[in-house]
Amino acid sequence: MSGPMHRALARLTAQTALNADEVEALLAVSGRDEHVRAGAEFVRRDHEVSTICIIVEGLAARTVADSNGLRQITAFYVPGDMPDILSLMQPRVTSSLEAVSECQLFRVPHGQLASLLSRFPALMEAFWRYTVWDDIVATEWVVNVGKRPGPQRIAHLLCELGVRLGKDEMDLVSFPLPLTQSVLGEASGLSAVHVNRCLQGLRRKGLIQFEKGELTIPDWQKMTEEAGFDDGYLKPERPLRLFGSPAAMAN
Asked: What is the pTM of this model?
């Protein structure tokens, strides 16, 4: 699988059954590549945007700052995600998007995407279902920050990132994690000092190892038990379809 639209296709077809013509039309979408350095905003709050972006490589975050400049991270986005898809309906965005690590993006003009969705209702359904999934993940984040104690909060966040980055084996799990303790704090509602204590506690229990930007979870089952983590909210049971016929399904 190659090309930036293949990233979005993999995400959409995991959730929605598409046929060969619909897949071909999606892959024919043109746009422009954009490289974003770590720490840079690529969508700014209260600005009007005319494209949606697909994360091709790297890790991005949705951020909201209060009147004192204090930030809350409300979501992370990994390759294949479309973090500003809602801008197609509401071009003036209400939160910012920032590259946590160096990111490669693919920007698709709103007009081109709107034309595609008007010609292929099943693709409209696929993007709609993607936004529903994104809302489900956001709800889990609210529960995580609002109800779980600090160590479990951090453990749950690390488990989610492991699954979303595709590392969901049931034994040893290892994946790059370019997050500082400050960023983890902004995502979990904890101070950097509290995050450090939580990470040290997880290390002492043998649940995580962290070296040179790589996070290792030696025993996935024990880690998920510690976190109270169930990945059901992240993974659809099967691709669904409400409208039209999924005949001539693509491989």
From this structure: 0.93
Residue 232, Cβ density class (10 Å: 0-12 exposed, 13-18 middle, ≥19 buried): exposed
Per-residue tokens: 56: 């091709």
For the chain, the domains span 4-142, 146-233
Q: What pLDDT digit, counting tens, does each position of 167-188 carry?
A: 655 667 888 899 999 999 999 9
Torsions phi, psi of 61, nearest 5? -135, 145
Exposed, middle or buried by CB within 10 Å (0-12, 13-18, 19+), for 86? middle
Under a CB-based contact definition with an 8 Å cutoff, are residues 46 and 93 in contact?
yes
CATH number of 146-233: 1.10.10.10
Structure tokens at 129: 């279902």
Topology annotation, domain 4-142: Jelly Rolls (2.60.120)
Say which residues have a Cβ less than 8 Å from residue 204's Cβ, sequence separation at least 6.
Answer: none
Report the distance separating Cα 83 and Cα 75, nearest Å: 9
CA 83-88-93 angle, to 5 degrees, is 65
